[in-house]
Amino acid sequence: MLRRTAYTLLVLAVAGAATACGRAAPDAEMAASSRGPITVWLSNNAQEVAWGKKMIAAWNRLHPDQHVTAQQIPAGKTSEEAISASIVAGSTACLVFNTSPASVPTFQKQNGLVPLSDFPDGDSYITARGGALTDQYRSPDGKFYQLPWKSNPVMILYNKKIFAKAGLDPEHPRLATYDEFLDTARTLVHSGAAKAAIWPAPSSEFFQSWFDFYPAFAAESGGRQLVENGTPRFDSPAGRKAAAFWRTLYAEKLAPQESYPGDALNDGKAAMATVGPWAVAAYQDSVDIGVVPVPTSGGTPPQDTYSFSDEKSVAMFSACRNRATAWDLLKFAASEQQDEAFLDVTGQMPLRENLLASYPDFFAEHPLYKPFARQAEHIVEVPNVPGSIDIWQAFRDAWTKSVVFGEEPTGTALRKASDRIGKLLDEYGDPA
Amino acid sequence: MTHLSPAADGGRTSRRGAAARHGRIRSLTGVLFVSPYVLFVLAVFAVPLVYTVWISVHRFYFTAPGTHADSPWVGLSNYRDVFTDPVVGRAFVNIVVFLVINVPLTVILSLVLASALNAKIRFRSFFRAAYYLPYITASVALVAVWQFLFGTDGFVNHALGPLAPDPSWLVNAHLAMPMIAFFVTWKQLGFFVMLYLAALQNVGKELYEAAAVDGAGRIRQFFSVTVPGVRPATTLVVIYAIITGANLFSEPYLLTGGGGPDHASVSPVLLMYQKGIEQGHPDFAAALGVVLVCFVLLISLAARKLTERGT
């Protein structure tokens, strides 16, 4: 009896372990035309969740036979880690409405993504919706593995009250050129109006450069990417000027070398911040804010100034068994009508051309979003290349060492980082 | 010569059979009781360790189920990458700095505090709870307290005035790792004090009485009776502190923003996380993990030899 019980327990344990470890993939050909219930993941941003629930409810009313369940992306240090783990486990949702373009090459390498270009109307739908802006989102094999969905173009948000306290004109701040920006920053800090002129996170995480160097480089270079045609582009006059500008901010202690444990702009510790339109809703009740483009050395006119997009895409994952439903839902969620609802609820910019003309009522009612809509026409994405995260980490390491802490001249650091990233690109291009 | 009757022989055989059956039942019961733990160890330690070693000698990355991905044998290539990566070297130097500060400090402070808390002092229970509290509090919450204390505008810098370091404690390339070592020492002290308190209960009071009769004062008693009396606990404390210290992750990640300036506080495990999870190089991370296991084993063995010397 005991022996039987012991064997039964052992068999159950082994079977349980085998079931848990068993990973079955759907047949891609069958899944491509299959319809039925699916699950989607939304970002855990409260406004996006509110929009997502309404959108899914509308879909479910129209398609009761293809029921969609919405969940928030599982908790993790970052969404990308949770998604990457679920790709390996084969438990990813059909669609993830918050896929970072920087992680797309990694997900692709994991065979975790469905090429949207393989749907008969895949390419035509994506390019018709986003126009020329979508070119940056094609993978090196020429296919779209993501639908470029919404951008949060990075601009300079400033606290008008702090500017006034420092004796500066809050309605016409002098922030267009590097010299103007530095003079303004000095006045803000030396007058005691704010502890910091601007306070981006100076820490070493790979993505932090998207909110200090990359917007400055995009603006200064007139819309170049960090890597283009397999070559690093930042060890250039534009890159060196942007790095020197930020180095001055850190060297003169106008930007602190330590992360702020909270929201420095909201707490009145910093007079400015590099943020996207999501921040308007977040600050408008607590801070009297103004918006200007990212500065350049010569002061580029706002309508010609580029910045980092901070875009998020929608991607379809290979664990999806009803991909025809997922594709239809994706088009439904990114339709002009849903984009309007999304803009209205979240203030984030749907990745479409001519936003101001497409949604005039919204921008008339919310003028603070207008600069972001104009900026959304001039955005630069992270390069869609294999090893994207490695590349950004290598860049960030050089940045913190030279620009934030001044342990190496910025020009030397950029040259070394460019060499290192060039080698990484070679390695990824030829993994053997 | 004694002849056994068939009945008597049969009885002995039957008793022997019963004893054998009883032994088998006992043995099976034992197997039943240990099997969950054996399965647990196999599932969460042995199999992953073997798999890690396998990954470390292949070009490998994690893929979606059912998809084909080549994992060619690359021999020691991943290990070569690990040993030639300057950041790995920095991570191990950082861990050595951490252990040099953390381990002796942990042993000394926890033994002294345990001895004090073992004596009959007022508010003894309060002090015991007070030292244990940081250990059971989440690192994330404590990190916020330390940032408040040691931040650029923190309490400590205000107190120090012009003597405050620049850059400040947590972003200073020379001070970041020692700060982490002090933080971890403080956080884990309660646990080690508890270990020593338990060990102190086994040190006979008569030894202290004899030492007192021989004229030994408090300090002499501490070094001649307490320290040798808790030596097995010291071995445990040292090895445990080395193992947990070498596996440092949360503190550099949270306290110094992902490894500090120019990798000043990066640890091997933090690097494994960055390489294996963030950057998608589980093969490199696996090789680094195997190197770390060997490193911890060697240091732990050396520490054991050292602490048990003379026993």
From TrEMBL, chain B:
<feature type="transmembrane region" description="Helical">
    <location>
        <begin position="230"/>
        <end position="249"/>
    </location>
</feature>
<dbReference type="InterPro" id="IPR051393">
    <property type="entry name" value="ABC_transporter_permease"/>
</dbReference>
<keyword id="KW-0472">Membrane</keyword>
<keyword id="KW-0812">Transmembrane</keyword>
<keyword id="KW-0813">Transport</keyword>
<feature type="transmembrane region" description="Helical">
    <location>
        <begin position="169"/>
        <end position="197"/>
    </location>
</feature>
<feature type="domain" description="ABC transmembrane type-1">
    <location>
        <begin position="92"/>
        <end position="303"/>
    </location>
</feature>
<feature type="transmembrane region" description="Helical">
    <location>
        <begin position="284"/>
        <end position="303"/>
    </location>
</feature>
<comment type="similarity">
    <text>Belongs to the binding-protein-dependent transport system permease family.</text>
</comment>
<dbReference type="Pfam" id="PF00528">
    <property type="entry name" value="BPD_transp_1"/>
</dbReference>
<dbReference type="InterPro" id="IPR000515">
    <property type="entry name" value="MetI-like"/>
</dbReference>
<protein>
    <submittedName>
        <fullName>Sugar ABC transporter permease</fullName>
    </submittedName>
</protein>
<feature type="transmembrane region" description="Helical">
    <location>
        <begin position="31"/>
        <end position="54"/>
    </location>
</feature>
<keyword id="KW-1133">Transmembrane helix</keyword>
<feature type="transmembrane region" description="Helical">
    <location>
        <begin position="129"/>
        <end position="149"/>
    </location>
</feature>
<feature type="transmembrane region" description="Helical">
    <location>
        <begin position="91"/>
        <end position="117"/>
    </location>
</feature>
<keyword id="KW-1003">Cell membrane</keyword>
<dbReference type="InterPro" id="IPR035906">
    <property type="entry name" value="MetI-like_sf"/>
</dbReference>
